[in-house]
Amino acid sequence: MTDSHSPCSGCSGRRDFLRTALTGAASIAALSALGPVNAISALVPRAAGGAVRYTLPAVDGVSIDSANEVILCRSHGEVFAFALSCPHQNTALKTMPKNAGFQCPRHKSKYLPNGTFVSGRATRNMDRLPITRDGVQIVVDPDVALASDLDPAKWAAALVKI
Ligand code: FES
C-alpha cells in the first residue's frame, strides 16, 4: 500500500515531475483550461533557497508561478500559497471554474480555495507554503511544504488576512 507521503513506484520526485510537466506558457495554458488563472512571476528572481515575493493580489483569484511551483490564491479576504503538486502522488493541480477551488487530473481529488480536501484519493489537504505580508507584497517560501496531517497548527496558520 502506498501512503500519501511515500513515493509510488514509477513516480519521480515532485520537483522532477513538475519540471518536466510544467514549463513555460504551455503549462499555464493547461492549468487555465478549467478556470481563470493568471501567470505570475516572483518580483525578483529567486536566490537559491530563498523566499519569493509577489505583489499582493488585488482581487480574488488564482495565480500560478510555474518556475517556483507556487499557487497563490486570494479568496474571501485571505491569501494562501500552495505547492503546485497534489499531495497524493504529485500531479500538477488545476483550478476549477469560478474560483471554486482545485482538482487533480490524475485521481480527481478536489480541494476548496483554502486547500481543504473535499473528495477523491488524496488523504490530506493541499500542502500550504509559509506566507507573510510585507506591505503590498506577499512573501512565500516554496521549499517548506506544510502538510495538514503532519503539522495541522502550522498548516492552519499559513495564510495572510487582508
Ligand atoms: S495524484 Fe492522486 S489525487 Fe492527485
Total DSSP helices: 3
CATH architecture: 3-layer Sandwich
Coarse shape? globular
Spatial strand order of the main sheet:
1-3-4-5-12
In this structure, how is the largest beta sheet organized? 5 strands, mixed
Terminal Cα separation, in Å? Answer: 42 Å
- Using the coordinates above, name the CATH class: Mainly Beta
Into which percent range does the helicity of residues fall?
10-25%
SSE string, helices as H and strands as E: HHEEEEEEEEEEEHE
Percent in strands: 25-35%
What is the name of the CATH topology? Rieske Iron-sulfur Protein
**Structural domain count:** 1
Task: Show the helix and strand layout.
Layout: H1 14-21, H2 24-31, E1 37-39, E2 52-55, E3 61-65, E4 70-75, E5 78-83, E6 94-95, E7 102-103, E8 110-111, E9 117-119, E10 131-134, E11 137-140, H3 152-157, E12 160-161
Parallel strand pairs: 1-3
Antiparallel strand pairs: 2-11, 3-4, 4-5, 5-12, 6-7, 7-8, 8-9, 10-11
